[in-house]
Amino acid sequence: MKKVTILDIAKAANVSKSTVSRVLNGTAAVASDKKRAVLDATDRLGFKPNVVARSLARGRSMTIGVLTQIIGSPFYDTIAQGVIAGLSGSGYSPIFVDGQWQQDEEVVGIRALLGRQVDGLVLIGGDVPAEEIVELCGDLPTVIVARQLPDDVHNCVFMDNVDGGFQATKHLIEHGHRDIAIIKGLAHHADALDRFAGYRQALKEAGIPVRDELVLDGDFSADSGVDAVEQMHHRGITFSAIFAANDMTAFGARLALSRLGIEVPGQVSLVGFDNQMESAYTTPPLTTMHQPARQMGAEATKAVLAMIDGEPFESRRYGGRLVVRESVSRLST
Amino acid sequence: MKKVTILDIAKAANVSKSTVSRVLNGTAAVASDKKRAVLDATDRLGFKPNVVARSLARGRSMTIGVLTQIIGSPFYDTIAQGVIAGLSGSGYSPIFVDGQWQQDEEVVGIRALLGRQVDGLVLIGGDVPAEEIVELCGDLPTVIVARQLPDDVHNCVFMDNVDGGFQATKHLIEHGHRDIAIIKGLAHHADALDRFAGYRQALKEAGIPVRDELVLDGDFSADSGVDAVEQMHHRGITFSAIFAANDMTAFGARLALSRLGIEVPGQVSLVGFDNQMESAYTTPPLTTMHQPARQMGAEATKAVLAMIDGEPFESRRYGGRLVVRESVSRLST
DNA sequence: TTGTAAGCGTTATCAC
DNA sequence: GTGATAACGCTTACAA
Q1: B250 touches chain A (CB under 8 A)
Q2: Which of A312, B87, B277, B312 is deepest in the core (most CB within 10 A)?
Q3: Antiparallel, parallel or unpaired: β A287-290 and A321-323
Q4: Torsion angles phi and psi, residue A29, rounded to 5
Q5: Stated pTM of the model
Q6: Is the CB of residue A77 less than 8 Å away from at least one CB of chain B?
Q7: Closest to B66 measured CA to CA, from B152, B132, B146, B149
Q8: Which range marks the domain in which residue B24 is found?
Q9: CA B53 to chain centroid
């Protein structure tokens, strides 16, 4: 069970290394008898090409580096799945590093990827400043998913979170709600900020003032949804609807509401953000903004592949789509 | 921004390639002045070692191959996260291939990993027969997670699903239930079969006969939970409790129940399996079997690392832990 | 069409 | 301590 190299099969087939390489890669025409001899020896000896050696010789590693943010977030996990899907059948393999949403970790990770001679890079989310990304990656085909960088800086595939927040809030307004609370996401997270901006924009457009007491802090966790609702209840704040920064937060809010004996959507309407799988099966099924996470991951990946082949690419913005289920009802006045 | 190699820094530091290599790896003592000169040149020129070349020379790639089963299953995804976590700080990077729960895909994937000279292998789930794994992987450090192979065949880190099913069912029995339905998982999936076996065992031990009408087919999806409940209702079958093969199925069942106006746990008690994040926030919060998915992933990975260093390893079976929440109540007779 | 030989960037084995 | 020099396994001019 020793390592079989092309030299071994070269000998076995009575040809030179180069010829072996040629038939294996179809790089050049080879006499059919020798060809068969090579192919023959190849599987007789059970030859498996050494990708590492090939990479070194070719200068291409056939790997794509992927920076993930493993926080157990369904959204980012789904993007990662999209990346894997986008790579399938391409001959490229993904190699992962995890950024843990920490700048230094991310930089270390990207460096590691670079050291491994990846042919391209897919960066999922992250906090590394745009300039640093450019500095690190140079002209290596790179695309950033789920994050919007200045247009002239780098290629991004992202979702319009301002519009998402706007749509979600508007949906509530259209159902007659005016006392709409928002449970925000992580304080410095761009997506959270954008969704909040969309919320304000929708209210403004409807002539509804933003009331500070209806703006609750959160961190994308279910617990923060629970806390926010309890807080409002404790303070005696009245509201007829909640826009949660993501579905997990909405789940928490829904549970807290239920504990307080407040019916959804009977007494309070609820909208989430992400459309994660579980949201279709909560009671009631959650109305939420769909983010094409998997699709974005796949598209970003294919873009990297295309860039490797010299094709150009420009940033792509996705629009969200509100999935209307049963957690919102018309406000009966 | 050209590629800087050790040759470049060798020249810049007036030493030989070998010396550069030595200081970079600490392989041997080097005069401190030369050492400084090298280190100096190293970051002046911004040298980044080429991992591919190093791998070829050393015969170790510093990568661990991971076979995943990306079906969007929280359970398997969590294991993958555990793998990443287990690798962190080790210097090894994970390289992923996806098996999609298809034998041929899995074999192709493993082959690809092997071709990339991975130093070890973590196989998550999968359907490839034990003998084939052995044949493919030879003596490469390999451990299989979330799957139990014959003891003498390979190293596994898995959970005892029979016991899990047993505990879950027993919990229901202890609360006075006798008409306990089970919504099974994928027909040929070992875990599903084991959980079902545990269910039967618990009933038997309690002297409760297994009634066929209470055994519903399912496929681990929420929809199959919905279907199962609707089916029972349609057939007029009475039951006071449901053991769902996993949490997603439980979610579906819970929704269907709610649609039928059946209260949980008031009229029907419900137990799931997986303890995925969302289960703590459903209404009511779901009582479910906790599987230490992340932990299993991490442990398997560390085991592979240890095996690379020549340490032995033996299969490890995890016990499940029932997380009691609010979806089960005592049957009032 | 086919073989020889020169890399690819490191590490490792020798002498010195 | 340090520097040649030979691997590592494969690709790719360059000849023939």
Answers
A1: no
A2: B87
A3: antiparallel
A4: -70, 140
A5: 0.94
A6: yes
A7: B146
A8: 1-47
A9: 32
